[in-house]
Amino acid sequence: MNNARRRLRDDDYWRAHRHQPWLVLGGFLLLISVLAAITGQDEETLAGTGGRTAAGATGGSTEPALSRAGIAPELSSPVSAETTGADLPGTVTGQRRVSQIIDGDTIVLAAGDRVRVLGIDSCESGTSGGLAATIAARDALRGKTVTLRAEPGVDRDRHDRLLRYVEAPGVGDFGRYMVSHGTHTGVYDGRNDAASTYLASLRALGAERSCGAELSTRQQPAARAPAPVDAPAPAPPRTASPPAAPAPARAPAGEAFKNCAAARAAGAAPVHRGQPGYGPHLDRDNDGIGCEWS
């Protein structure tokens, strides 16, 4: 009797709970479906945000880019201003490339013309100041294409050199550059037709020239003494003639004139290289002609 009742209870329990495992499995599958739906929605949200970010990076946004401080748009670095032609003297005659530097105030163009720079006077190449001037001119002009300017009615000097103001990129007016970069170059006191206002602007820069000692002295060969000869027989007395005018004083053999004033006083100016009295300190532009300027 008891066994019959136990079997009856077991049958009732089985009928009541026979669908429970399927309910558990169905609930588990439902949970997985919900989680998958939520994950897909999050991915769509992230994709939309990324798309907007990419659009902003490729120019989709119309707002200006901000600086690293986040306050104002970034600005480009300032451009250094060079001297323009507006405040330079003379009229532009062309642009030419510099092929050679003779000294601090004389250059040679690629076409072969020599240019004597207006307004300045550099130390001669035989002095320490002349060496410094030549080096400064090479640093400023060698190989560059320069702008040449002329004064009205002024073209060449008597040595067929072009008389020009020179303007170079990165340098500006070459005359002002040389005067303001050392004592090797001063204002030219002679007459080479630079504008008076331009000369005044150079003097305002404190253009006091100091050339220093000569680097070397070119000695001229001493004249040979004539071979001794027998004294001639005394000539018969003659009537005295008026004394001849004394010959102009010349520089002692093997020595150079002290300065151009002495050369002019002796009537020897201009003095050419190889002649008695010539010295590098008399030849300002080292062209072989000393004391050439009046």
From TrEMBL:
Keywords: Endonuclease, Hydrolase, Membrane, Nuclease, Transmembrane, Transmembrane helix. Residues 256-292 form the Excalibur calcium-binding domain. The chain crosses the membrane at residues 21-39. This is SPBc2 prophage-derived endonuclease YokF. Residues 229-246 have a biased composition (Pro residues). Its EC number is 3.1.-.-. One of its GO terms (molecular function) is hydrolase activity. Residues 211-294 are annotated as: Disordered. Pfam families: Excalibur (PF05901). It comes from Pseudonocardia autotrophica (Amycolata autotrophica).
